[in-house]
Amino acid sequence: MNTAPAAYPIGTPGEPWGDAERAEWLSRQVRQRSYQAEVLMAIERLDSRFDLERYGELRYGADQYPLMAIRSRDWQEELPVVLVTGGVHGYETSGVHGALQFLDEHAADYEGQVNLLVAPCVSPWAYERIHRWNAHAIDPNRSFRADSPAEEAAALMRLVAPLRDRILMHIDLHETTDTDETEFRPALAARDGEPFEPGDIPDGFYLVDDSERPSPGFQQAIIQAVEKITHIAPADAQGKIIGSPMVAPGVIEYPLQSLGLCAGMTGAPFTTTTEVYPDSPRATPEQCNAAQTAAVCAAIDYALANG
């Protein structure tokens, strides 16, 4: 027997949240891990090999978070720029640690070929609270546009703006998790005063290409690299992944710029969003990080060969 999902515990069904509901939501958010210990200290360990840049600071009440980027030390103006971003959704752990693992283990392979710019944890407040939104209940990954309401997105766009015309490739590292269905989508529906429509979480890795400027060969090169490490998400019975038609094995498309997504902010020739599935019984945290790292390497290799 089908039963209606339980109402989200904040707000009145059918009515968008106001200040009181947002304040109640914020009061329920608890720090569960340390940005300083898990991310900043890992970045500091890279100091001998890269240039570290503080590109902004978040202030939420008494909490302050430096926003950090890592650049190639041998930066050469004539070389193309490769942009790697992670942690736009703070709860998507392998995006953060996969970006850092790439720098530690593979960045040296590209010295003299590209300039690397990596922002491994775009949303540190959300990283600590294992959440999708920032402290204002705003999704940074729908906020990469002019006059952004999310400082996380605005700060990253300011960092990237001087380089925008030189960026060859941008890969944005994400996860799709079971809590998308149990917490974050219900919360989104409640926040916006809309009904929650249950969906399915795909079991496996997939990519989101740009429907306005697709790059199918680029996407498949990444899929082929990642499938050596973890399994690729199949389409559902309707031929879709997470509600969108699968256009190639493990690939769907969104209009990246129109939706204000991070991967659409540069207009680079090669762009993608990775989606790792950490809740699969067939994947470990180490595999998830390795899959993100392999995706970055494959993306750079393809862009260099075809750019």
From TrEMBL:
Tell me the ranges covered by the Peptidase M14 domain, including all copies.
31-307
Q: Does the keyword Hydrolase apply?
A: yes
GO MF entries: hydrolase activity, acting on ester bonds; metallocarboxypeptidase activity; zinc ion binding
PROSITE patterns xref list: PEPTIDASE_M14
GO annotation, biological process: proteolysis
**Required co-factor?**
Zn(2+)
SUPFAM superfamilies with a match to the protein in the record: Zn-dependent exopeptidases
Pfam families found in the cross-reference section: AstE_AspA_cat
Q: Which Gene3D superfamilies match?
A: Zn peptidases (3.40.630.10)
Sorted keywords for this record are: Hydrolase, Metal-binding, Zinc
Q: Does the keyword Acyltransferase apply?
A: no
On the tree of life, the source organism's domain of life is Bacteria
The family this protein is said to belong to = Belongs to the peptidase M14 family.
What name does the UniProt record give this protein? Answer: Peptidase
Species name for this entry? Marinobacter fuscus
